User: Fold this.
Amino acid sequence: MDALERYLRECDTPQGDALAWIERQSWLRTSHGRQVCGPTVGALLREIVRLQRPQRVLEIGTFSGYATVWMAMALPEGGRIDTIEINDEMETLIREGFERAGVTDRIRLHIGDALDVVPALAGPFDLVFIDADKRDYVAYYQAVVDEVRPGGLIVADNVLWDGKVYAGETPRDRQSVGILAFNDLVSGDDRVEHFILPLRDGLHIIRKK
Ligand SMILES: C[S@@+](CC[C@H](N)C(=O)[O-])C[C@H]1O[C@@H](n2cnc3c(N)ncnc32)[C@H](O)[C@@H]1O
Assistant:
């Protein structure tokens, strides 16, 4: 943890026991704990949910359920989250975290490939959080954009991809190429208004007109 992150954790409202437990278990029980979005992005998602008061939220890429719980804890009465995770080895940890946070009844967990699951889910969605395989961001966007209601939001994480997308050299790795194609697609889509928030690894905030 760097000095900035330590300072933010000291200043900000503590995330609470359940989220701290999920974050810690993500490091202890998987080999890629850094995939959790962290408390600052989590708190931003919480505030988006508080302001927007969505009834239907879709998350693509659950991992340990950390971001899911941030959003679930802020949902208004009757609000629901569908979250999709391709790796079935995560299911036990995800469900334990939901139980600890007391949000199980607000969440439907789908284990499978989002590209198979999304077409089977009926929209419209008020908020979509895209945070799965960077190579497939274009496909996720194309799968959800028509299912987002006017005024609804799509938030996509990691769209600066460690600076590789603006470093000057043309990136060759498939993740960077996927993110670049996604950002270009959104920029050319006149159905939406959007901006990139350079927080952590970059969040593309996209509002359907
Ligand atoms: C960055 S992590 C998600 C982190 C989580 N949203 C959070 O902030 O706590 C990405 C997750 O997406 C999952 N994933 C990758 N491709 C997927 C797909 N096609 N469908 C569903 N999940 C996928 C990975 O297994 C991984 O757990």
User: Anything to note?
Assistant: The longest strand covers residues 148-157. The mean pLDDT is 97.
